[in-house]
Amino acid sequence: MAAGDKQICLCFANYLERSLLPLRFICYTDSDFLNVQQPIRKPLSACIKHVFPNTLADSKCSLNQNIEASIKPKLSKNFEKIIVIRSAPNAINYREYIRDTWKQTFPSEIPVVFVVGKGKSDDDVESEAKEHEDILQLDFIDSYFNLTLKMMATYGYFLKHSTVEQFMVINDDTIVNSTALMQYSNEMQKGENYVIGKVSRGYPRLFMPWLLWHVPSTMYNHKCYPPFVQGSSFIISRKAASEIFKHICDFPFVHLDDIMMGLVSNCVGTSLIHREGFDHHFLNHFTVFHYQYSRYSASKMRSLWKQINHLL
């Protein structure tokens, strides 16, 4: 499929998703899946059974296994916070855009690392990594249906190889207001179990198979999702990442990473903390700007950065 056709399909999928918003009124009647302050059920096994009444976890699940890194970033031995930018192997233009723009607004003691999986050809990634020393490439195929794997592999790597206390996870097609993000980051204490971001509640499972975010009933058969944090940008503590990584294979698999993390979080007791400005698609008062209805080009992101740079 040509790039233009893909863009048309993506825009059409987003239009249909927005047209399904009336279903959210139905989801707001499901009290079990609205609370963000306590687990849906206790103990953990009862919660999993309630969320997945007719599905069993995959006995061959390997999401909680450490994945080898073929390229490692150059990092100091001790850092408390890290900015993890999820990128694709061929998204060099987006990484260059970030290096030239909002990355420079963060304190130097906070490393900024681009995480990618394997692509069709990784020669360019290798040369880019040698030049910038800010890429972590993990040994799995980077694809849309490996988003959950990508997130778990990222947690697993840094939980094993660092003492980091807080991850700031960002997509590469974003603009970050470093002042606002650091303000939210600094509110939290070590050892707490939380995810901060845009908390979505009353969100329906998209049942039309041609939609990009379709999840079949055989994978998850409730009509609504529990609260979850939108995946384009969030802050997660080491405690929360560790709990999710530890228990991810106790759950049946869902390929959408933010939905999967929300399902696990709601059962293991992770606090989902809503803060304004995450996944924000207006160029005012944002923490992380992200246009969710299409993927802006890297040149478009540079242009937007120039428009708002004086405000950050």
Automatic annotation (TrEMBL):
Its EC number is 2.4.1.-. One of its GO terms (biological process) is protein O-linked glycosylation. Keywords: Glycosyltransferase, Golgi apparatus, Membrane, Signal-anchor, Transferase, Transmembrane, Transmembrane helix. It comes from the Eukaryota. The keyword Nucleotide-binding does not apply. It is a single-pass type II membrane protein. Coiled coil: none annotated. One of its GO terms (cellular component) is Golgi membrane. It is found in: Golgi apparatus membrane. GO terms for molecular function: hexosyltransferase activity. Belongs to the glycosyltransferase 31 family. This is Hexosyltransferase. It comes from Panagrolaimus davidi.
